[in-house]
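Supplementary notes for students who missed Thursday's class. We covered one full example, reproduced here. Read the sequence, then the structure, then the short commentary at the end.
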Amino acid sequence: MTIVDRRKIVFDAATIMAVLACSEQTAEAIGLPLGLPKSVHFDPGASKVVLLYGGTGVSAALETGQLGALLIAYCMRAGIKVPRHGSRAIRVERHAAVLVFSTVHEVPSAKLARERTEELPRSISWMHPPPASVPVSSKRSSQGS
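Structure (token representation):
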């Protein structure tokens, strides 16, 4: 059995402009002109993001490989966790570019830690309302009586 962990990070036009503003080296490394574009357009049919630069009328089309490199580099610098294992993809939608990550975990995991019987797991805080603060070991012994 497996658990599939899917995550996505969405970058709209304003966010891509902000990423470009603080990623000059990466932008240059992937072949973009110097300076900031005036606008960002998404072309889902061609899986591209088109950057339009002012005055000169120059445009640059980012293919998914270039776009992925730019966005993942930004995420790593910004401290946004990016899975190291599993599959990675980038989608260009009508109003955003989306990084998609999928990781498959086996159940039970070989890395599974033993449950701590002396106290309730921290995940109990997800319950509404939370249970009374009674140690798990005493709950188990009283349930058997």
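Commentary. Confidence is low (pLDDT under 50) at residues 140-145. The chain has one domain: 2-106. If anything here is unclear, bring it to office hours.
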